[in-house]
Write a structure and sequence with these properties.
Elements: H1 40-47, E1 57-61, H2 68-81, E2 86-90, H3 91-94, E3 110-114, H4 123-138, E4 142-147, H5 159-164, E5 169-172, H6 178-191, H7 198-207, H8 212-229, H9 235-242
Parallel strand pairs: 1-4, 1-5, 2-3, 3-4
Helix pairs in contact: 6-7, 6-8, 8-9
């Protein structure tokens, strides 16, 4: 079963353990609607991971709302489009389970592990991750890992796991500057089929939150309000809907 089929809702580990992992991929989390800014080389590495010279192991690190989860899910979407089996594991949501979902995971083509820091310091998880990384490498499969800090800055207790985190190529996911945030906002609006003028986009960016995920959530609310009222997005309409 492909883990990149979000409509199914439940994702089960390849070993057959019946853990009700309620995770899926957001339909909007694709490379096409990700504005890379200073992350162009990172996006290229993920896009090319299954090419003959692609990187088998990519480690991403960065702060909140820089797009790490988006990129991991985009890689899974791309793998699915190539008829490859991919699994997205957000450990912030799944870390309270035992690491049974990592058993026999080398049967998959791509494994994307998000929020690694959420399970570090727990011996059972660290040992399972260590063996998982080894099996994926031996099977010539692809792995992407995401965390809030670089590998050497993570609180890893198992030395062998710490060494494995340095196997591949590491990218620092850079946050967007204001021009980049403007382009990301316009790109997300186009992806939703919204008519968003430059003037209104700049107004939203100036008055809205700094975090991109909150900015996109605000854009979604405006989209719903615009469709409901059958009104175009103008500055007065945005003011009224958002109470500015």
């Amino acid at each position: 079963m492909k883990a990149s089929t979000p409509r199914s809702g439940a994702v089960r580990p390849p070993s057959g353990h019946q853990l009700p992992l309620r995770v899926g991929l957001r339909d909007t989390a694709t490379f096409a609607n990700f504005h890379p800014g200073a992350n162009a080389s990172l996006v290229e590495a993920l896009r090319n991971q299954f090419d003959s010279r692609g990187e088998p192991f990519v480690f991403l690190w960065g702060g909140e709302s820089v797009g790490r989860s988006h990129l991991l899910q985009a890689a899974c979407h791309q793998a699915s489009a190539r008829d490859l089996r991919a699994l997205y594991l957000p450990l912030e949501e799944l870390g309270h389970f035992p690491p049974l979902m990592l058993e026999n995971i080398e049967r998959l083509d791509l494994v994307a592990i998000d929020d690694l820091e959420c399970v570090l310091g727990r011996s059972r998880w660290e040992e399972a991750l260590f063996h998982c990384f080894n099996r994926l490498r031996d099977a010539d499969k692809r792995l992407i890992v995401s965390a809030r800090a670089a590998p050497r800055q993570l609180a890893v207790k198992l030395p062998d796991l710490a060494s494995r985190l340095g196997w591949g190529v590491t990218f620092h996911v850079q946050s967007l500057d204001d021009p980049g945030r403007l382009e990301a906002l316009k790109l997300r609006a186009r992806d939703r089929g919204m008519s968003l003028s430059e003037e209104v986009a700049r107004y939203i960016l100036h008055r809205g939150p700094r975090r991109l995920d909150e900015l996109f959530a605000m854009l979604e609310s405006l989209d719903h309000a615009s469709l409901s009222a059958q009104r175009k997005l103008t500055i007065p309409f945005v003011k009224r809907v958002l109470g500015w």
